[in-house]
């Protein structure tokens, strides 16, 4: 960084006296490259100008813009920082500076710049402040990494962009890459947007030692001389669905912004054409690809259609388009297979998935979920990978896969196994140039600490308000269900205890002490973070006969006795108590408040008590151990009798479900 600052200072001190007319001619030539989307050539031209003229805000912004459009956020951040030193810097450059800083994980700086942009452009203030807030989320997520092992696939990657892997049924891999071809005759063919080769689809077979063979390009039936990929494969029809780029006249097309994930690129030959994506299908016949056909709804003269993701049953094709009527820059659409085998009209996947930003790179995981990349949902920077549950245009949730599956750079093109815990993805996370590589990932179980407390709830004198009283020296036995092992400990003088546990394992904790009922807790830790501590609370009940114990959170709908799901959770705890203490018999009673008539309250409480007993019996408890009893309003716990004005909180004290031991 310091060397680059010195470079600027030296330029300022050693300016040549090149004629102004020559400088204008060189600037015009550089701008021509830039406006033709040939950013690699434009960058060279702008940097040569830096050697001949004093840097101004326009030149610095053009260099920064070139790096940004080449997806090199590191250099883009540096050059936007230089442009920001000028009072005449464009507000858009401040925004791009913020975006580059966020992509580089410089979240505090990005937050500062988004806030500055909000002040400069009030009509964009809400959006900018949301972006600033997302920096706080990114800082939090990166401080709590999920437990994944991630390794770069060296055999698949190159010095260029390698992305969007898909796995064939035999385990082999097809992916997209803009690496320079090995064919000597084609090595000079470069895409002047990036300076690399054209995107092609490559194939690599998995060796016996689980490494990869040397990748080789698919045949010319798939790969044209221009961009091809990414792709999706339908095993049941042995068919590859893939993206192919078509060059159209700029006057006929709207403009977009990304060379490897979308369009708006020059063709590298100075014609000024804009590229549009199309979807094609090809059937594999042995080692050959045959019957190459276009997707029915390709329309390159007006918009792009690409990034296909076919469902395993072949009935739905998800894809990305910037067709008119979308939610943002690019949206995810789907097309449904018709009875005659044709594809139905594209339908937008809806605003749960799609945002005002870019949604792209959809894939169908082997776990049945839709995965896609977006820069419109809250993320870490650039494109993040998200997971959605549902289908068609009906989605219940969209979840960021968080760090380290996502990073501040672009993350995209994921392959997931049936467990949803391992696979491959592509990312620019370790690239100085912003180029994507393919990574293998798998979720690993982490050890975390279970922190527990044993206590009883005791009425405070003269009230029905309960307080915690810690119970010490409780024998606690931890059973690992899958293995059958047991570990013992005791709660200390303050009722605390702890164990080391692993995520995903099934455990039972049994707590016992003389004078108390034995308690059990069942749980499966979801400690995804290596720093996790899990809190488990065990309420101890005295085994004293004929002393009522209130069951908390047993609620019924008004005038009904049906067991609600939230009440079932509490009754399940009583089931575990009865199973852990097989000799006890209990009375389970229901109580109402004084509102309604006495007869009504009595009948309602009897029905509720019986419904609770019936539920417990359905869970395997012998009915002989249970007595249902309804007391109506005969055992009020406070003054709230008939004709006494009371608050709702006071009436709630009387509405309760209790149990008491009536025999051992």
From TrEMBL:
It comes from the Bacteria. Coiled coil: none annotated. Keywords: Cell outer membrane, Membrane, Signal. It is found in: Cell outer membrane. SUPFAM superfamilies: DPP6 N-terminal domain-like, OmpA-like, TPR-like. Residues 543-664 form the OmpA-like domain. InterPro entries: Bact_OuterMem_StrucFunc (IPR050330), OMP_bac (IPR006664), OmpA-like (IPR006665), OmpA-like_sf (IPR036737), TPR-like_helical_dom_sf (IPR011990), WD40 (IPR011659). Residues 1-21 form the signal peptide. This is WD40-like Beta Propeller Repeat.
